[in-house]
Amino acid sequence: MDDKIGSAPYDDSDSGGMDEWSPVAQFKVKTIIAKACARWAAAGSDPAYTSAFFKALSGERGHLLWDTREAEAYRRLEAVRSERA
Fold first, then answer.
1. Domain that includes residue 51, residue range
2. Which positions ≥6 away from 72 have C-beta within 8 Å?
3. Which residues pair with residue 8 across a beta bridge?
4. In the chain, alpha helices (H)
5. Residue 33 located in a structural domain
6. Distance between CA atoms of 2 and 83, rounded to whole angstroms?
7. SS3 state of residue 58
8. Rounded to the nearest 5 degrees, what angle is found at the Cα of 74, between the Cα atoms of 72 and 77?
9. Cα Rg, the chain, nearest whole Å
10. N or C: which end of the chain has fewer CB within 10 A?
11. Is residue 21 part of a domain?
């Protein structure tokens, strides 16, 4: 296939061990993963999150510099990240 993820070719036949699962189950799992990735990408690409992230890097009290938008953007990304646990 021509589609690539990173540097490895994307091959839909690599089901990651889901070969024994029904096609419906495989589709549902792949859909859940794709939606989670989309939520993470949307939250992480928010300019308010980027600003909060760099303020947090400025020191152990950097989070005290966040405005309301930055704090909410950071919480939103953390909520998406906690879904993976």
1. 44-85
2. 48
3. 5
4. 23-44, 47-57, 68-83
5. no
6. 31
7. coil
8. 110
9. 18
10. C
11. no
Q: Would you give the DSSP letter of residue 8? A: E
- Indicate if the alpha-carbon torsion angle 37, 39, 45, 48 is positive or negative: negative
Number of domain units in the chain: 1
Residue 64 lies in a domain: yes
The one-letter amino acid code at 35 reads K
List CB contacts of 46: < 8 A, sequence separation 6 or more: 73, 76, 77
Please check whether residue 1 is in contact with residue 10, taking contact to mean a CB–CB distance below 8 angstroms: yes
Is residue 30 one of the residues assigned to a domain?
Answer: no
Stretch 20-35: mean pLDDT: 89
Q: What is the pLDDT of residues 35-68, one digit of tens each?
A: 989 999 998 999 999 999 999 998 889 999 999 9
* DSSP three-state, residue 83: helix
